[in-house]
Amino acid sequence: MRALRTTLASTWILGMAPALALAWAPPPTMPTVEKLLTYRPTQPGVEYEVPTDPAAIAACKVEQVTNAKGASIGYALRDGQGKLLCRFVDSDGNNRMDQWGYFQDGFEIYRDIDLNNDMSIDEVRWMNSAGTRMAKVANRKVVAWTRISAEEASKVFLQALVAGDAALIDSVMATPAELDALGIPKGEVDQVAAAEKQRLAAIKALRAGVMAGGWDASTTWATLGAAMPHLIPADAGLKDDLLLYENAMIFPASPNNAAAGKMAFLQAGEMVKVGDAWKFVDLPRVIDPNKNAPIAASEGGIRSWVFRNDGANAGGGENPQVAEALQALAAYDKANQGLLNADNPKDIARFHVYRVAPLNKVVKAAEAAGDAKAELDHLKLSVDSLAAAYTSGAYPAGAKALDDLAAKGGKVGTYAAFKMIEAEYALQNDKGGNFPKVQKDFLNNLKAFVDKHPQCDEAPQALLFLASTNEMNAEEDEARKFYATLARDYPATEWGKKAAGALKRFDLVGKPIALKGPELRGQTVDVAQYRGKTVLVAFWATWANPAKRDLPDLVKVHQKYAARGFEVVAVNLDNEKADLDAFLKATPLPWPEIFEPGGMEGRLATEFGVISLPTMILVDPDGKVVNRSLRTASEVEIVLDKTFATKGGVALGTK
Fold this sequence. Notes:
- There is one protein chain.
- Among the domains are: 2-145, no CATH class; 148-297, no CATH class; 516-644, Glutaredoxin (3-Layer(aba) Sandwich).
- By secondary structure, it is an alpha+beta fold.
- It contains 22 helices and 23 strands.
- Helix 11 runs antiparallel to helix 12 and helix 14 packs antiparallel against helix 15 (435-452).
- The protein has an eight-stranded antiparallel β-sheet.
């Protein structure tokens, strides 16, 4: 058997662990399985895979890791199924180990790194399912976060609070200098500086408060509950646009599920993004769900100071009544999470139906406070809950509720009408009915919606549904019509830009293609550089199973025709580079990979209107597109068979 091992402390020191402290003349014999299994990540809380019983350990194998020249650079350990468990390497060829990677489900999730070959860890990274964190380290302790998401920052804070690690808490707190560099008003910076001097005592009091509220040494992080982040524009007097969360709730995981609803949780007044790291502006406070209500950050926080200096009304943010309603909503979600996890339609419907009441309390509080945006946002969330309940199949009354809201008109009315169309489509698909008829009804309903509400907020998304679905059904003329309307009427929206890209893709055949971007090492890959060769541009992602399943066949096609001048340029649309890195380490591919942030909403996906994966475009030796709608490796092979069997090269196609 295998288990997830969570490190509670660093158990080895560089220079003392035999296999890791090799002065890196590789030893005459391979290290044993048992030896490699003794090593641990330097940071606490890392969950990684490790065999636990003798049979599983006996099935493990140690193998050498080699570089591109075939030279040994380290060791890897695989389990009996061939999955990687750990890998320790000398990445820079100076005969010293400098990277120690740990795996879960075959993917690397954590890495210790010695950047300067001084026999100590300088950087640590979490990746893939373990998150995005990257930190600078000294004496095996995190001293600064290079990158950390808001969710991960809240997790680190909770873990540090449970452990009583004030230094780790400091690592996720914004410093006065950092706030000043962001252009935060001096009044707020001074408040943070004053609080910083009293922080140690405040941490002790905070820890005592959560322990009195049901926490103990086994308490772990559950989730960060927050509405959408705020953006304060640079022209409000800041040095750049500022991203922040207000009134985020940090919920613990209870060691005793029966007491989960009674455990204290934390309210973070403000979290702000500093570079690539999210940090707390001030210490969160303890919230007893049965007693005190949260205090809105806007009453004395960054937004208040910014707009006070800007001459605006500082009271425009959440007032105490809104904050109290939001806290009640968060408490409802926390107490009833089990209904969603039960995977029972009736329980799912119950969760969403009863969630409408606390949502409506937020709506009323926002209306009373004059906060029109919060009012509209939470009205739409109520619509989402009704739609989700109806889609479950256990709340047929949801249809009338949505129709009644739609009949009222306005922004909420059109949103309700649109969500009803989506919900009905999803529900009918789940019932396993006549799919062609269900889809036809869906498209007809969308078209009627757009005809009736051509200027509503949901019209661009409806038009993209119409266009993309028709394209997938090979109804290209219909697809082109909807793409054209979307690109013309909504050119500045993400949907309008995607539509313009799709129209461009439709018209590629017979024209040169301009496509370039950075590959994984930062060098630019330009299709124009492949002039004289037949090139396949392949858009794909590791999460897109059809594209991923097709890769072995595409590799074979590449091998078959590489000697005749066939090349592949891949454009990866993963959301995180770490996902691609992990995949390529396990499954190397013989062609360059262009990667830019943004996934399906990224620059190249938008520029070429990519709506599904894989999307493949074939370019002839003259740099002109000859086919822009290939979907599988077998289709590519058929075209190439004809291509290389014809002296004249690739014949222009219509697709």
